[in-house]
Protein backbone atom coordinates (compact mmCIF):
# COMPACT_ATOMS: atom_id res chain seq x y z
CA UNK A 1 0.00 0.00 0.00
CA UNK A 2 1.00 3.58 -0.39
CA UNK A 3 2.34 4.61 2.98
CA UNK A 4 2.62 1.74 5.41
CA UNK A 5 4.55 -1.47 5.46
CA UNK A 6 1.78 -4.00 5.19
CA UNK A 7 1.42 -7.24 7.08
CA UNK A 8 -0.14 -10.23 5.37
CA UNK A 9 -2.26 -12.61 7.36
CA UNK A 10 -0.51 -15.96 7.43
CA UNK A 11 2.97 -14.65 6.68
CA UNK A 12 5.86 -16.99 7.38
CA UNK A 13 7.66 -15.29 10.23
CA UNK A 14 8.34 -12.00 11.97
CA UNK A 15 11.67 -10.62 10.69
CA UNK A 16 14.38 -9.16 12.93
CA UNK A 17 14.85 -5.53 13.91
CA UNK A 18 17.30 -4.77 11.11
CA UNK A 19 14.92 -5.85 8.37
CA UNK A 20 14.16 -3.70 5.37
CA UNK A 21 11.13 -4.09 3.17
CA UNK A 22 11.20 -3.95 -0.62
CA UNK A 23 8.14 -4.35 -2.84
CA UNK A 24 9.39 -6.41 -5.76
CA UNK A 25 6.17 -7.03 -7.67
CA UNK A 26 2.43 -6.71 -7.14
CA UNK A 27 1.20 -8.34 -3.94
CA UNK A 28 4.69 -9.61 -3.00
CA UNK A 29 6.80 -8.04 -0.27
CA UNK A 30 10.40 -9.14 0.31
CA UNK A 31 11.87 -8.42 3.74
CA UNK A 32 15.64 -8.58 3.98
CA UNK A 33 18.04 -8.26 6.89
CA UNK A 34 21.79 -8.23 7.36
CA UNK A 35 21.86 -11.33 9.51
CA UNK A 36 19.08 -13.47 8.11
CA UNK A 37 17.69 -14.83 4.89
CA UNK A 38 15.08 -12.70 3.14
CA UNK A 39 11.49 -13.40 4.07
CA UNK A 40 8.95 -13.28 1.26
CA UNK A 41 5.39 -12.42 2.17
CA UNK A 42 2.72 -13.09 -0.42
CA UNK A 43 -0.48 -11.12 -0.08
CA UNK A 44 -3.47 -12.90 -1.57
CA UNK A 45 -6.43 -10.54 -1.91
CA UNK A 46 -9.85 -11.99 -2.58
CA UNK A 47 -10.46 -11.90 -6.32
CA UNK A 48 -7.85 -9.21 -6.82
CA UNK A 49 -9.48 -6.85 -4.33
CA UNK A 50 -6.69 -4.47 -3.32
CA UNK A 51 -8.92 -2.94 -0.66
CA UNK A 52 -8.51 -6.20 1.25
CA UNK A 53 -4.76 -5.57 1.43
CA UNK A 54 -5.39 -2.13 2.91
CA UNK A 55 -7.83 -3.49 5.45
CA UNK A 56 -5.29 -6.10 6.54
CA UNK A 57 -2.64 -3.41 6.87
CA UNK A 58 -4.65 -0.88 8.85
CA UNK A 59 -3.64 -1.16 12.39
CA UNK A 60 -1.46 -3.84 11.04
CA UNK A 61 1.91 -2.65 9.76
CA UNK A 62 3.28 -5.53 11.73
CA UNK A 63 6.27 -6.45 9.62
CA UNK A 64 7.95 -3.35 10.96
CA UNK A 65 5.70 -2.67 13.93
CA UNK A 66 6.41 -5.88 15.83
CA UNK A 67 10.09 -6.27 15.10
CA UNK A 68 11.12 -3.94 17.82
CA UNK A 69 7.74 -3.10 19.12
CA UNK A 70 8.39 -2.75 22.79
CA UNK A 71 5.39 -1.10 24.47
CA UNK A 72 7.82 0.94 26.56
CA UNK A 73 9.54 2.46 23.53
CA UNK A 74 6.72 2.94 21.05
CA UNK A 75 6.67 6.50 19.78
CA UNK A 76 3.07 7.58 20.09
CA UNK A 77 0.72 10.43 20.72
CA UNK A 78 -0.28 11.24 24.27
CA UNK A 79 -2.24 8.36 25.75
CA UNK A 80 -3.92 9.89 28.81
CA UNK A 81 -7.08 8.17 29.94
CA UNK A 82 -10.31 9.70 28.77
CA UNK A 83 -13.93 8.65 29.14
CA UNK A 84 -15.23 6.74 26.16
CA UNK A 85 -18.67 7.50 24.78
CA UNK A 86 -20.39 4.52 23.14
CA UNK A 87 -22.70 5.10 20.17
CA UNK A 88 -25.65 2.76 19.41
CA UNK A 89 -23.59 0.52 17.12
CA UNK A 90 -21.23 -0.26 20.01
CA UNK A 91 -18.25 1.76 18.76
CA UNK A 92 -16.65 3.85 21.51
CA UNK A 93 -14.79 7.13 21.10
CA UNK A 94 -13.10 9.85 23.11
CA UNK A 95 -11.57 13.05 21.76
CA UNK A 96 -8.24 13.81 23.41
CA UNK A 97 -7.60 16.77 21.13
CA UNK A 98 -10.30 18.44 19.05
CA UNK A 99 -8.87 19.37 15.67
CA UNK A 100 -8.72 22.82 14.14
CA UNK A 101 -8.85 22.00 10.43
CA UNK A 102 -11.49 20.69 8.03
CA UNK A 103 -13.20 17.34 8.41
CA UNK A 104 -12.59 14.58 5.88
CA UNK A 105 -15.11 13.81 3.16
CA UNK A 106 -16.05 10.34 1.95
CA UNK A 107 -13.56 9.08 -0.63
CA UNK A 108 -10.93 11.70 0.22
CA UNK A 109 -7.28 10.66 0.45
CA UNK A 110 -6.14 11.48 3.97
CA UNK A 111 -3.20 10.86 6.32
CA UNK A 112 -3.37 9.59 9.88
CA UNK A 113 -0.99 8.36 12.57
CA UNK A 114 -2.16 5.63 14.92
CA UNK A 115 -1.31 3.24 17.72
CA UNK A 116 -3.23 -0.04 17.78
CA UNK A 117 -3.73 -2.01 21.00
CA UNK A 118 -5.58 -5.05 22.20
CA UNK A 119 -8.11 -4.55 24.97
CA UNK A 120 -5.50 -5.62 27.53
CA UNK A 121 -3.31 -2.69 26.45
CA UNK A 122 -0.79 -4.70 24.44
CA UNK A 123 0.41 -2.68 21.45
CA UNK A 124 0.37 -4.55 18.15
CA UNK A 125 1.22 -1.69 15.79
CA UNK A 126 2.26 1.95 15.64
CA UNK A 127 2.72 4.19 12.61
CA UNK A 128 4.81 6.47 14.82
CA UNK A 129 7.41 3.71 15.07
CA UNK A 130 7.65 3.62 11.30
CA UNK A 131 8.00 7.39 11.18
CA UNK A 132 5.35 7.81 8.51
CA UNK A 133 1.57 8.25 8.69
CA UNK A 134 -0.83 6.00 6.83
CA UNK A 135 -2.49 7.38 3.69
CA UNK A 136 -5.83 5.96 2.56
CA UNK A 137 -9.19 6.92 1.10
CA UNK A 138 -11.65 7.19 3.94
CA UNK A 139 -15.19 5.89 3.87
CA UNK A 140 -14.86 3.55 0.90
CA UNK A 141 -13.77 0.32 2.59
CA UNK A 142 -10.01 0.64 2.15
CA UNK A 143 -9.61 0.32 5.91
CA UNK A 144 -11.50 -1.49 8.64
CA UNK A 145 -15.05 -0.29 9.28
CA UNK A 146 -14.23 1.20 12.67
CA UNK A 147 -11.71 3.56 11.13
CA UNK A 148 -14.09 4.80 8.45
CA UNK A 149 -16.81 5.56 10.97
CA UNK A 150 -14.41 6.75 13.65
CA UNK A 151 -12.98 9.43 11.37
CA UNK A 152 -16.07 10.43 9.36
CA UNK A 153 -18.44 10.26 12.32
CA UNK A 154 -21.69 8.35 12.78
CA UNK A 155 -24.73 8.04 15.06
CA UNK A 156 -24.07 11.25 16.96
CA UNK A 157 -20.28 10.86 16.99
CA UNK A 158 -18.88 14.01 15.34
CA UNK A 159 -16.38 13.74 12.49
CA UNK A 160 -12.73 14.23 13.34
CA UNK A 161 -11.19 17.53 12.32
CA UNK A 162 -7.65 17.78 10.94
CA UNK A 163 -5.20 18.04 13.81
CA UNK A 164 -7.45 16.07 16.14
CA UNK A 165 -6.59 13.03 18.23
CA UNK A 166 -9.25 10.46 19.06
CA UNK A 167 -9.30 7.14 20.88
CA UNK A 168 -11.53 4.51 19.31
CA UNK A 169 -12.73 1.27 20.88
CA UNK A 170 -13.84 -1.10 18.16
CA UNK A 171 -16.09 -4.12 18.72
CA UNK A 172 -14.99 -7.18 16.71
CA UNK A 173 -17.40 -6.46 13.85
CA UNK A 174 -15.71 -3.08 13.34
CA UNK A 175 -12.24 -4.64 13.28
CA UNK A 176 -11.15 -8.16 12.27
CA UNK A 177 -14.23 -10.05 13.45
CA UNK A 178 -14.36 -13.80 13.98
CA UNK A 179 -11.25 -14.54 11.92
CA UNK A 180 -8.81 -12.29 13.77
CA UNK A 181 -5.59 -11.33 12.03
CA UNK A 182 -1.95 -12.37 11.87
CA UNK A 183 -2.91 -15.99 12.52
CA UNK A 184 -0.46 -18.85 12.12
CA UNK A 185 -0.19 -22.27 13.72
CA UNK A 186 -3.25 -21.79 15.87
CA UNK A 187 -2.23 -18.45 17.38
CA UNK A 188 -3.14 -14.95 16.25
CA UNK A 189 -1.57 -11.56 16.85
CA UNK A 190 -5.11 -10.20 16.90
CA UNK A 191 -7.26 -13.07 18.24
CA UNK A 192 -10.73 -13.73 16.83
CA UNK A 193 -13.53 -11.60 18.28
CA UNK A 194 -11.10 -9.05 19.72
CA UNK A 195 -12.07 -5.59 20.85
CA UNK A 196 -9.43 -3.15 19.61
CA UNK A 197 -8.25 0.24 20.83
CA UNK A 198 -6.79 2.78 18.43
CA UNK A 199 -5.28 6.17 19.22
CA UNK A 200 -5.78 8.02 15.94
CA UNK A 201 -4.25 11.35 14.95
CA UNK A 202 -5.97 12.78 11.86
CA UNK A 203 -3.30 14.84 10.13
CA UNK A 204 -5.36 16.00 7.14
CA UNK A 205 -5.64 15.34 3.45
CA UNK A 206 -2.74 13.55 1.78
Can you describe this structure?
The chain has a domain at 73-205: Chitinase A, domain 3. The longest helix is centred in the first third of the chain and has 8 residues, at 50-57. The model is unreliable at 1-48 and 62-79 (pLDDT under 50). Strand 4 and strand 5 (92-97) form a beta hairpin. Strands 4, 5, 6, 7, 8, 9 and 12 form a seven-stranded antiparallel sheet that branches. The chain starts with 19 loop residues before the first strand and ends with a strand. The protein is globular, with a radius of gyration of 16 Å. It is built from four helices and twelve strands. Helices cover 12% and strands 33% of the residues. The protein is mostly beta strands and 206 residues long. It comes from Kingdonia uniflora. It catalyses: [protein]-peptidylproline (omega=180) = [protein]-peptidylproline (omega=0).
Keywords:
Chitinase A, domain 3, seven-stranded antiparallel beta sheet, mainly beta, EC 5.2.1.8, about 210 residues
